[in-house]
Amino acid sequence: MKDHGSVSVQAHKIVTLVSLVLPLTASVVCDPPIAIPITNVSLANSQVRRGLPIRIGTPPQTLAFLPQWAKNNTYVYQSSGAYCPSNTTGAACTTYRGGLYDIDASTSRIERSAFDAGADPYDILGGLRGTFIATNQSLMRFMKDDLSLSSNITLGGFPIGVPGDDIGQQQAEPQAILGLGGNSTLLSALRKNEQISSRSYGIFSGLTGVTSASQMDGSLVLGGYDQAKTSGRNITGPLTDVTLCRSQMMVTVTGMSLNWPNRTDTSVFAREGDAFRACLIPDYPLAMSLPGEVFQRINANFDSTFVDRSTGVNFWGVAYDGRGGAPYDGDLTAQIEIAGQSLDIRIPNDQLVLPDISIAETGAMNVNYSKQVVMLDALAAETEMLLPIIGRSFLSSAYVFVNQDAGTFTLWAANATTESDIVPIARDGSIVDTCGLRLVGTDSPESGDTSGSTPARLTIGAIAGIAVGSAAALMVVAAAAFFIIRRRRQSQGSPDSPDGVTSTHYQQSHIPYDPQEMVGSHFRDPHEVEGVGKAAHAELGASHARYELAAPAAVSELHDGKSPATTVSGKHGY
Description:
Elements: H1 2-26, E1 34-42, E2 48-56, E3 61-68, E4 74-75, H2 90-96, E5 110-112, H3 114-117, E6 124-127, E7 130-133, E8 140-150, E9 153-163, E10 176-179, H4 185-192, E11 200-204, E12 207-208, E13 215-216, E14 218-222, E15 224-226, E16 230-238, E17 250-259, E18 265-267, E19 276-280, E20 288-290, H5 292-299, E21 306-309, E22 318-321, E23 331-338, E24 341-347, H6 349-352, E25 353-359, E26 365-374, E27 376-378, E28 389-390, E29 398-403, E30 408-414, E31 422-424, E32 453-454, H7 460-489, H8 535-538
Parallel strand pairs: 3-10, 4-9, 19-28, 20-27
Antiparallel strand pairs: 1-2, 1-14, 2-3, 2-8, 5-8, 6-7, 8-9, 9-32, 11-14, 11-29, 12-13, 15-31, 16-30, 17-18, 17-19, 17-23, 21-22, 22-26, 23-24, 25-26, 29-30
């Protein structure tokens, strides 16, 4: 009876264990990174704008957002005051802004101050009326409203700023803004609600050529990165805690070359001293802005005549007479160095040279093949001391990952693919190998939580996985019960003992980190329109005049006669 009682006790323990394991297994919660496509977003005017398809309000209004690295808050322009350029039609204005927020149509919106809404009250904004902070109630209103990043990730009562001025960098960044700055309210809310593992993100801007073969959606991954869109080794450095580079991603360009179709290369660096520091700003629309001397060497190899700058989608790119064809039919390679590590990034011609694309009065995209835009900007004499920029178009050929918690950023050559392999990253930069177990009913939001987050719902696949896991757990426990009872019924002299249980441990893979020296103080803010007291900005005043950037002075400095590349003769052909 003693042995039988012991077996009964063991069986009771096993039943109890089953009752504990099943609810634990059923409540497995994975908080994988959130992947948002960068794609053509359908707008209320029946047109499209490339960006992140994010919905706000109730019923949801879909807008085409673009991330910005100098902003901490999320901002959208409202339908009753969009501050578009003068003489812009309503349909064109809607496309220009990536959609407009109809405040009155949202039943879930509540107007609050920046503080009460949970926004970053000290977010610095540059508008046509000057530089101001988010608490300036004459130029900024805040709503608490639903923000849906995907079909199963919604932040309720999220702070959304509605500008009373144009804060779009004079057409360089005109769309709705998803702030990913160092104090990003979005990343902080997702991290607080354990919907991402770290305040990190990876971005591939996709391909934006004019043919179907040269077009591809990009992606923004919050809480990790897309490994499938990276190629080869990476280089990593620290985020520099300086105001001179608003993204804090400083790199050195140590070499540049033109890659001709006949497989010959022309270096545009005449000497070692041509290397220059640059700030990686993924919301800047072009591939790069370059020191004037470096650009002149590139321009000398072009076969067309410079005409002006683009004032369209690829704002301020250098434009050429395209009636005789594209000014250049090769690629461009830049050698990027971070913390002593170097990486070659090659921009293909179909992402480097594009026809001029503008927004028509109907809101549709208008393509002008007679005007060819090279996705570069030449710093003019009056802007020569500005810090060169590496921008969004560059990220068609490079992939960048930023971990704000670890204070690092990482760069790869991009692998342009529609495949996806999302990797969650922890705060320390390690890969998150396993999902945690969350007890049922113990993770309810605290009362008074202003985030109002709606928990991510489990997908059908996840539910199926939980069911399979539950069944597997039950089978394991049942098997254990069988062997325990069987052993208890064996002779007392049996020398066998149960085998030890070995836990499985996963090795954490770290993105390498190398120290990098701080940026020298002689560099200035790369964007004057965000600065305080900049002359070019002050000239805009309250007139709302557009297209008045200082760069047109560079037109006279460009060579009208183009000398061909020294390594080839005649037209370059494949």
